[in-house]
Amino acid sequence: MELLQLRTNLNAAFAGGVPFYVYTVGTEKQPPITRLNGFSAKQLFFTISGQGEFRQLGQHNWDILKPNRLLYIPGGLPHEYVPKGREPWITGYVTFVEKEDGWMESWGFGRKPQLFDLKDSGRLYALLEKVWFHAGPCYNEWKSAEQFLALCVEIGKQAVHDEIRSPGSPAKPSRDPDTAAGRITRFLHDHIERNFTLSDLASYVGYSPKQTVRLFRQEFGVTPHQYLQRIRLRTAALLLEEHPGVTVRQAAAHIGMEPVYFARLFRREFGVVPSEYGTRGTSGS
User: Fold this and answer.
1) Can you tell me whether residue 65 is helix, strand or coil?
2) For a tag on the chain, would you pick the N or C end, based on fewer CB atoms within 10 A?
3) Domain that holds residue 40
4) Residue 66: helix, strand or coil by DSSP?
5) Rounded CA separation 34/155 (Å)
6) How many CA atoms are closer than 13 Å to the CA of 169, on its beta-carbon side?
């Protein structure tokens, strides 16, 4: 099966009365990911082959994500998931943003994570592929909404769901930024482990690379890639501080960097190598 590379409708808006839009969609060989601040949009996430484990940060128990199982994760919920076993963990995902929070709650996509046991995830993949086709360069808000709702209807037809118990209060969904630079920062935070070219980012927001850099500098004082490097290092520092058992290689993989290069940049930023950071009892300030 050919993987569907990530597509995003980063420049989408709530036009024509559509109460939601698809933010990202695709399939991938899933690496380990820890999202200390959650993801900015709501996620539907299912296993195509292999299997993995999911948990909310702060919980000890892991939920198994095997074939024919779908996971819904609300926006802003800190969590992590990791592959399990020798077989590659292939997943499909679609994330979405609502115009008004709660519009999809009656479908089971509210403020708490849910696990859905499915009868045929192959049917979901076929529908996900249609959502993907109408995303990115082929984005059409009505076609995208139509295919996404078809996917949700199929989930409703197939699924038996179990609520995942949540420690503490439910997360508050984040708001959608309203500037090109704001949309890029949101996207970089959500995909901190991935690498993007300037041309990729510019195409997502509908500007030329030169215009994108100019708009971003006006708002944040740095280029998009300088910003990404900054949030990667700060995210790694927080990870090392809160999880002292994490290795340098694991921290580097979490933010999508090569370990030696990561260690050099980390020392330049914080004055110590990553292996010493978590033992200092300081936030590096």
Assistant:
1) strand
2) C
3) 7-163
4) coil
5) 26
6) 2
In three-state secondary structure terms, 235 is helix
Specify the pairing of strand 42-49 against strand 69-73: antiparallel
Residues 135 and 209 in one domain: no
Domain assignment present for residue 228? The answer is yes
- The sheet carrying 69-73 orders its strands as 7-8, 20-29, 90-98, 42-49, 69-73, 114-117, 160-163
What tokens were used for 19?
């109460």
Q: Is residue 174 part of a domain?
A: no
Across the strands, what pairs with 55? 80
Helix residue ranges, H only, the chain:
121-133, 141-158, 180-190, 198-205, 209-220, 224-242, 248-254, 259-270, 274-277
Q: Which residue has the tokens 């809160």?
A: 242
Is residue 13 a part of any domain in this protein? Answer: yes
Q: Are 139 and 40 in the same domain?
A: yes
Instruction: Return the structure tokens found at 37.
Output: 């601040």
> What is the rounded CA–CA span in Å between residue 25 and residue 262?
29
Does the reported pTM lie above 0.85?
A: no
Which helix (DSSP H) or strand (DSSP E) does residue 236 occupy? helix 224-242
Token pair belonging to 113: 């994570």
* Residue that is written with structure tokens 């921290």 in the block: 251
